[in-house]
Every structure is written in structure tokens, then in C-alpha cells.
Design goal:
The complex is a heterodimer. Chain A has helices at residues 6-14, 20-38, 46-61, 103-110, 153-160, 177-183, 217-227, 271-286, 300-317, 335-348, 354-377, 402-406, 411-415, 445-457; strands at residues 41-44, 72-76, 114-119, 166-171, 186-189, 209-214, 257-261, 290-294, 380-384, 419-427, 433-440. By secondary structure, chain A is an alpha/beta fold. Chain B is an alpha+beta fold. Chain B contains 15 helices and 15 strands. Chain B has helices spanning 2-9, 48-51, 62-74, 170-187, 228-247, 293-301, 307-318, 322-328, 332-347, 352-361, 371-385, 389-402, 404-411, 417-427, 435-446, and strands at 12-22, 82-83, 86-89, 99-102, 109-115, 121-131, 135-141, 144-150, 157-163, 199-208, 220-223, 255-260, 265-271, 281-282, 289-290. In chain B, helix 7 (307-318) packs parallel to helix 9 (332-347). The interface between A and B is large, with 43 and 29 residues.
Chain lengths: 471, 447
């Protein structure tokens, strides 16, 4: 039953086919059974989860209706959860127990969700592999010799391995979409400012976007319905009204204009990735969409911009970990964090600020304008999420720019603060999943989800849909 | 001192001021904790935001920003329509986030000035908004020296007011500070109490050699000054110290010095070789602030009449001396009841100047006594100054008769005796009467 997606689980709970307690227990047992291999969790909150499942069952009995009532959900370890250890997978916060809930966790709790625990990630979300966690790498459920991607690798692996019904991740540039791609699940990166960052251990503050990682597109829409909205604790959340993100899922895409840019089928891209994504685009064309070639900036420019802005913000965001009020001192930072602190500190130093940070912000503006121009011609842009399939464990060793290269195709849209989603479009010959991304303008979540859902529901009969990871 | 003054003649002082004013908003700058931290139990006014816990984010206090703008407007500043917050990065145990949220290149207010009584204008470079830090407390616990941190003050709204290096004397600095204090109190945005640290001053002082163009090559910043009179002492000490160094043909070191109350001197705290590198960058957690002209005008309307204007208006409206009006408008609540009293006086057809004299000379507590009561007392006292010459002359004659010795002394040339006689006359009246009038009548009689 833990194979259920969110929609199915809600139905099963409603029809009393299963109780939240039983469902939660099943998830916890699966974690127990599989996590020695996967290492998707940093902290499992068994007791808390069972207790809130019991409460949920009571509520269900009393006729309470909430959007996520009784649904077991896994949370990335950079989301603060009251009275729960929150490490962001760094030894600096090894014994840090948050005294408050992040807005996302609060909203999930208010919606009745049962929180299973905290998932593994690249320490401080610095990476795209979940191999740089101070608590050891997470492994890809489809082949445990491979990486799950990252930084939300624990969440993506957990969803793929049915350890949970759905999970929460956060993306600065690729950290939801890329692991979702490598793990064969749906990952939605909402527009910057659509979902509150309050209580999320800050990485690149001008980029961080929390979002769902789920088994289906509709599940992502349902969770976004719970998470989206202005937050008085986060001044960067948008006051724009929240849509009902499930309403437009089944709209026809007849006449929809899809932009394809050659720049996103970069040199050295995995041939199978290219092939599967092009097949998926064909499928959308068959469903009535119009495919248009567009020209976008070479995504490699985004790497430079992203590297400077993100590292600069990181160097400042990590300053509070001075070992005085909580956690361990700064000697507990691992290599990658130290490297980013040094890089960012240098880029912000007087005399270099204009050359680096300021220049990067100017190029960022150009990238935003480039997308604005593109969205005057097309409704959405489609591209591979990652230029490669999941890479083997150990691939990040000695590669300090690993993440930026793995995320080359998601960084431009992150820098521009756009909405984007990864959906699985099949498997390569080595049984590793292939992901495709759909990018829309800011606050176009409904549209992006609509296109993704149209692909999903019209490919249900494809054989690869029946595959499950064997663990 | 004379030697010192002549020495100083050689150099011209160049003094600028940085003043921090703590606002008295209910809540802190970026969270909903109470900003009223003074005398509270340590670390009781804190939350994840002002403690800088992982994931906590700042949410700016609208009222504090509006008050900052109002201070700027009162200092004749321009209010740019675009502004933003920046992060000032540095490590210190009382700084919970490892950076202070401040403003760097786009402060809320720029290019203002304060006019001193001499007519000299002191340029106000900028007025910006930032947050206060926590407080380190060094204590001895069980024989062990420990440093403790109280974060109650962390995140309390601070407005920083920076002047141009336009001051040349300690007196001007003091007057500027008094005016500034008076203005923020008039605006009722801060108690501006030096002792409680609501207002903190940091002068930077240097001396210019004769004929030297531009600013001196060095600058000495003095900290730990917690009263207006100390700022004068610190400046005088520094000017003398620096003049002596320059006399020897050397250049004073660019540094931060601390004021020592006991010896009225300054001591070196930290040598600044270059400007510190705070690695300022735009605060990504707070979107830039864009004002509209309408909003700025709305704020302008909220600014009450300020002391200068009020004194001028009272002087004109009630035909009282400007110097008296200035004394009466020192404090806003005093000024308001002063005005009320004069208005009431007008209704009774009283002489406003006389009523003003009555209030000022008798140091009447305008905060405790109601205008009606003051006017009543004034009328009572005033009736007696109109006592008939007849009655007064009668009493004077009686006093002359009773004090023959004193009268003789006076006639011999001991003129001071007259005041004794005036006193004797006045004793015969139960109410206060005009001593000048008594003296004049006495002198006439004794001629």
C-alpha cells in the first residue's frame, strides 16, 4: 500500500481501506528495510509520525477533511521542524534541534500531513549528488551503485523507493528537478517567492524555492495547493493570489506553443536522454501542441552567474554558524562549504564586488530578459532536465564544479526565478530513468502542471510506467 | 589652556559625527519581539529571527522605516524613491547572524542639513536604517571570568545619522546634538536618552594644517561617549593630542579611540589601517523599497511642527521675545502646554509677554500645573503689582521711620542698604509685589 500515490492514498484513507496509522507504519517499515542501502534519511521520527498518524485517524473518524490528512510525507533536512533535529546534512548542526517550524512544515502539519522524518541532502544543499552529505551519500533506488542527484537526493530517492507517499525538497538551481530526473519522479520547482522560505536553512537566498517531489503530477499540484502563498514571515513571498493548481490539470494542450532551444541539447549530452526527451516532445505534438524552435542564451553563461551569486550569498548565510549559540564551530564545515565560503568572501570583497557580484547581477538581468523575450513567442520551454543519466557513486570526487555542470540545464531558469517541473519520460537501456523539464514564466505553475499532466496521463499505457525499483 | 589655544590656531579642526538613534517602536526591526529591552531579564525578548537561528528570515518593520524617513525629512533630507537594505558582514559574538542588516549605497534619506543658532549649516550626508546588536556582558562567575551574551537588544531598530565633516568646534557639535535630540523627541520616535543608550555618538576628529587642501590624511574615531558634555571633552582632548603630534612633524594614526570618563581622555582601541571590508551586498531576504511621491507627501504631513518653527510662530503669534519662545519650546510637551496657557491668557486679555515671563521666571512646572491654574495664579500675582501708589507710599514712609540707622547709612553712601529697605517694604505685603516698583518709589522718597 505504500506504493500508493497521494491521490490513491487519500482515497484509501477516505474509504477506510487503510488507516493513517497503518499507512505510516508501512512507510516506516519500508524505511527500516531499505534505508540501510539507500541512506535517504538523516533522521526518522518514528514516534512523532505514529502519534500524528493516530491523531489523523481520530480526525478522519470525526469527519474532518483536510488536504493531506493522514498522508506520510518526508521532509528534506534543511526544513526546520519544531523539536526535530535539523542538520541540513552538516555536522555543524549535528545536535541542533529546531525550536520552531518552517512555514512549509507548519502548512503541511495544518493540512494534516504525517511527517516521517528528515531526508538526506548535500550538506547545506551544496551539490547535485547527495554524495557530499556529512552523513554519507544517498543511493539511487533504481541502481544503488548510482547517485540520486541532489541536493534533494534523499527526498527524490525516498519517493522513488516508496518510503513515503510524497516528499518536500528545495531548489536553488536544480536541487528538485535534477534529483527527480535521476530518480524517475516528479519534482516541481515553483516560482521564486511562491512558496515561503521561512525556516529553510538558507543557501542562495535570492534563489531558494521549496517544492514537492511526488509520484505523479497531480500529487505535486495538490501539495502546491497547500504550500503556495504569501507568508508574513518571508518578505520575498509574492502577494499574487494563489490558484487552485489542480483545476487546469486536464485542460487540452491543443494549440499550446512549446519552445525548443538547440542550446539545451548541448554537446556531450547523453544520446539516450536526447532521444527520450525528443520522443516525449513528439508525444506532446501529437496531443496538439505546436513545437517551435527558439533561440536562448547558451546555458553555460548561467553557470558563471549562478556560481558567483550563490557563493556570495552562501558566504554570508553560513556566517551565523559560529558555534556560540547552537551547533558545532566552524571547523566542522566540510570541504565544499569551506570552498564556497572562501569563493563567496572573495567575490564580495571590496575591489572585486563590481567585477564579480555586480557583473553577475547584470548578466542575471540579461538572462531574465532573454526568457521574457522567449515567452512572448511560446507558452512553455521544454528541455532535458539533466544532460546525463544518474552518475555512479564517487563521480563527484575531485570535481568541485560537478554540481554546476550537472545542473547546467536548470540553472538559467532558476536564476530567472521561473516555474519548472521535471517529469519522467522513460528509462535508458541501463534501467536508469530519464527526465524532461517543462519551464514556464514566473507564476505559471498551473500551466506547467497542465502540460506535465497531459504528458503523464497520455503515457500511462507505456510499459516503463510499470517498473518499480527492486530493493 | 592659552598655550593650547594658540597652538590650535595653526590647525583647523575637521569634525564629523555619526549618531545612532534607537527607535521606540513596539516591536523590533525585523521580528515581532518587543523592542523594549531596557532592564529586562536577559534573553527574554528573543525569537528565531533576532537570534539568527537557521532558516529564520527578517521581515521589515514598516513603522520603523517610516520613522526613519520622518527623521530624514526633519533634517531637510531628500528621500530617494528607490532604496534597499544591504548586509554588512563581520564576525562578533553579539552579532547573531554574522552580518548586520543595514543600508549601504541606497539609504532612505540623503543630503540634509541642520542650521545652528550661528547660522552655520551642518550637512547631513545620510540617514539610514539598521538593526542593533546584542550585548556582551563580562562577568565573574565562581571566580571565573566569563563573557555572556544578551540578545534582547538584537534587532532593535536603529537610525544612523551621518554628518559631513563640517564641525570646527566642540560647542557646535554639542548644539547640533541638542537640536537632533530635540527633533527626534518632537517626532516622538525615540526617547533619545543618552544614559540608556538610545542615542550614541561617534565623532571623528582630525586637524587640517594651514593651507592643506581637501580632508586630512587621517581620521580618529572616538567611541564610548555617553553624554553631550563628554563629547566636548573628548573632542578637546583629541584636538590637543593631535596638535601636539602634528607639531612634532608627525601624522596622527588613523584609529578608533575610546573615551575614558575618569581622566576625560581617549585611549587607542583599534588601529584602522584601511577601511574595514564589510563585503556589503544587497540583502536578498528583503525586496528593494520603492516609494511613491504620494506616500512621501503623506509621511511629510505626519511630521509635527518642529522646535525652530514652533518658537518662531509662538513669538510672532503672541508677540513674545524669540529667546523666551525658544526656552519654552525646548521640549514638546512643555511647549504645548506653554502655548495652551498663552492662548488662555489671551482670552483673559492678559499680556502674553508678562505671562511668559511669569512662567519662565518662576520656573513653573508646565507638566504638572494646568494652564487654567497657571493663568489664575498669574492674575492673582498681577493684581498686587497694580497696588495703589498711595498704599505703597504709606508703607514706605513707615519703613523709613522704623529704620533710621539704615536710612542714615544709605545717605552716607552705602548704597547696598537699599535692598534691605526694599525687603522691609515687601514684608508688609502678604502677596508678592514688584520689587522694581518698590525700589523706584523708595529711591524717590530718599532723594
Amino acid at each position: 500500500m505504500n506504493n500508493l500515490n497521494l491521490k490513491q492514498a487519500k482515497e484509501a484513507l477516505k474509504n477506510k481501506k487503510i488507516s493513517s496509522y497503518e499507512l505510516t507504519k508501512l512507510c516506516l517499515e519500508t524505511i527500516e528495510k531499505t534505508d540501510k542501502k539507500l541512506n535517504a534519511f538523516v533522521t526518522v521520527t518514528n514516534e512523532l509520525a505514529l502519534k500524528s498518524a493516530k491523531n489523523a485517524d481520530n480526525s478522519i473518524k470525526n469527519g474532518v477533511e483536510l488536504p493531506l490528512l493522514g498522508i506520510p510525507i518526508a521532509i528534506k533536512d534543511n526544513f526546520s521542524a519544531k523539536n526535530v533535529r535539523t542538520t541540513a546534512s552538516s555536522k555543524v548542526l549535528d545536535d541542533y534541534i529546531s525550536p520552531f517550524d518552517s512555514t512549509v512544515v507548519k502548512k503541511l502539519k495544518d493540512a494534516g500531513a504525517v511527517i516521517l522524518g528528515k531526508t538526506n541532502m548535500d550538506a547545506w544543499a551544496h551539490g547535485s549528488s547527495t554524495e557530499t552529505s556529512d552523513y554519507g551519500p544517498t543511493r539511487n533506488p533504481w541502481n544503488t551503485n548510482y547517485l540520486p542527484g541532489g541536493s534533494s537526493g534523499g527526498s527524490a530517492a525516498s519517493v522513488a523507493a516508496n518510503q513515503c507517499i510524497a516528499a518536500i525538497g528545495s531548489e536553488t538551481a536544480g536541487s528538485i528537478r535534477q534529483p527527480a530526473s535521476w530518480c524517475g519522479v516528479v519534482g516541481l520547482k515553483p516560482t521564486y517567492g511562491r512558496v515561503s522560505r521561512y525556516g529553510v536553512v538558507a543557501m542562495g537566498s535570492s534563489l531558494d524555492s521549496p517544492g514537492p517531489i511526488t509520484k505523479t503530477v497531480e500529487d505535486s499540484a495538490q501539495i502546491l495547493n497547500v504550500l503556495a502563498g504569501v507568508d508574513e514571515m518571508d518578505a520575498t513571498t509574492s502577494p499574487l493570489p494563489v490558484r487552485n493548481y489542480t483545476h487546469e490539470l486536464n485542460k487540452s494542450i491543443q494549440g499550446l506553443k512549446i519552445g525548443i532551444s538547440d542550446e539545451y541539447f548541448i554537446k556531450g549530452i547523453d544520446k539516450e536522454v536526447e532521444e527520450k526527451v525528443k520522443q516525449a516532445i513528439k508525444k506532446l505534438e501529437l496531443l496538439g501542441a505546436k513545437i517551435e524552435k527558439i533561440k536562448l542564451f547558451d546555458p553555460k553563461y548561467a553557470i558563471d552567474v549562478y556560481t558567483i551569486i550563490q557563493r556570495s550569498e552562501v558566504s554570508s548565510n553560513l556566517a551565523r554558524y559560529d558555534g556560540i549559540r547552537f551547533g558545532n564551530d566552524r571547523s566542522s564545515f566540510a570541504e565544499e562549504a569551506k570552498r564556497r565560503i572562501m569563493f563567496g568572501t572573495y567575490a564580495l570583497s571590496s575591489g572585486y564586488y563590481d567585477q564579480y557580484y555586480n557583473k553577475a547581477q547584470q548578466v542575471r538581468t540579461l538572462i531574465i530578459e532573454d526568457f521574457n523575450k522567449a515567452f512572448k513567442k511560446v507558452d512553455v520551454i521544454i528541455a532535458p532536465t539533466s544532460p546525463s543519466l544518474a552518475l555512479p557513486v564517487g563521480a563527484t570526487k575531485g570535481e568541485s564544479m560537478f554540481g554546476e555542470l550537472a545542473d547546467v540545464l536548470v540553472e538559467p531558469s532558476s536564476i530567472a526565478g521561473l516555474a519548472g517541473i521535471n517529469i519522467p519520460v522513460g528509462f535508458a537501456k541501463n534501467d536508469l530513468p530519464v527526465g524532461m523539464q517543462i519551464i514556464g514564466p514566473q507564476f505559471s505553475e498551473s500551466l506547467v502542471l497542465n502540460v506535465a499532466n497531459q504528458y503523464e496521463i497520455n503515457t500511462q499505457d507505456e510499459k516503463w510506467r510499470n517498473l518499480t525499483p527492486s530493493l | 589652556m592659552e598655550e593650547f589655544n594658540t597652538k590650535l590656531m595653526k590647525y583647523s579642526p575637521v569634525i564629523g559625527l555619526e549618531v545612532h538613534v534607537e527607535l521606540k517602536t513596539n516591536s523590533k526591526m525585523f521580528c515581532s519581539c518587543s523592542a523594549d529591552y531596557f532592564g529586562q531579564k536577559p534573553n527574554t525578548h528573543t525569537c528565531p529571527v533576532c537570534l539568527g537561528l537557521p532558516g529564520a528570515l527578517p521581515f521589515p518593520n514598516k513603522k520603523a522605516i517610516e520613522w526613519c524617513i520622518m527623521i530624514g525629512m526633519s533634517l531637510n533630507c531628500e528621500i530617494p524613491l528607490f532604496s534597499k537594505f544591504d548586509r554588512k558582514n563581520y564576525f562578533y559574538p553579539d552579532l547573531s547572524k554574522g552580518y548586520q542588516i543595514s543600508q549601504y549605497d541606497k539609504p532612505f534619506c540623503i543630503n540634509g542639513h541642520i542650521t545652528l543658532s550661528s547660522g552655520k549649516k551642518i550637512g547631513v550626508t545620510r540617514v539610514h536604517m539598521e538593526e542593533d546588536t546584542g550585548k556582551l556582558i563580562h562577568e565573574n562567575i565562581n571566580g571565573k571570568g566569563v563573557s555572556l551574551i544578551d540578545f534582547n537588544r538584537s534587532g532593535v531598530p536603529l537610525v544612523e545619522i551621518v554628518t559631513e565633516p563640517d564641525f570646527e568646534t566642540a560647542e557646535d557639535v554639542k548644539e547640533y546634538l541638542q537640536k537632533l535630540q530635540q527633533i527626534v523627541r518632537y517626532l516622538q520616535v525615540s526617547n533619545a536618552d543618552m544614559e540608556k543608550g538610545n542615542m550614541r555618538l561617534e565623532p571623528n576628529i582630525s586637524l587640517k594644517k594651514p593651507g592643506e587642501k581637501g580632508l586630512p590624511k587621517y581620521k580618529v574615531e572616538v567611541k564610548n561617549i555617553n553624554s553631550f558634555s563628554f563629547v566636548g571633552k573628548a573632542i578637546e582632548f583629541e584636538l590637543k593630542r593631535q596638535a601636539e603630534i602634528l607639531d612634532k612633524g608627525k601624522l596622527p594614526v588613523q584609529e578608533t579611540r575610546g573615551f575614558v570618563e575618569k581622566s576625560s581622555s581617549t585611549v587607542s582601541q583599534r588601529v584602522k589601517e584601511e577601511a574595514s571590508d564589510y563585503r556589503y551586498f544587497p540583502e536578498p531576504d528583503i525586496p528593494p523599497i520603492r516609494w511613491t511621491k504620494e506616500k512621501i507627501n503623506e509621511l511629510k504631513k505626519q511630521i509635527p511642527e518642529l522646535p525652530n518653527e514652533k518658537a518662531k510662530r509662538l513669538s510672532e503669534e503672541f508677540k513674545i521675545r524669540l529667546t523666551d519662545a525658544i526656552i519654552a519650546t525646548d521640549d514638546i510637551s512643555l511647549a504645548n502646554s506653554f502655548e495652551e496657557t498663552l492662548k488662555l491668557g489671551q482670552k483673559h486679555n492678559l499680556d502674553s509677554q508678562k505671562l511668559a515671563n511669569f512662567i519662565i521666571n518662576r520656573k513653573i512646572n508646565l507638566l504638572e500645573e494646568l494652564p487654567a491654574k497657571i493663568v489664575e495664579n498669574f492674575i492673582k500675582a498681577n493684581v498686587n503689582t497694580d497696588l495703589s501708589d498711595n498704599e505703597l507710599n504709606k508703607i514706605i514712609e513707615q519703613v523709613i521711620k522704623d529704620n533710621t540707622k539704615a536710612v542714615e547709612d544709605y545717605k552716607k553712601g552705602k548704597e547696598t542698604v537699599i535692598m534691605f529697605l526694599v525687603g522691609q517694604v515687601m514684608r508688609q505685603f502678604k502677596q508678592k509685589i514688584d520689587a522694581n516698583k518698590v525700589k523706584a518709589s523708595l529711591l524717590a522718597k530718599l532723594k
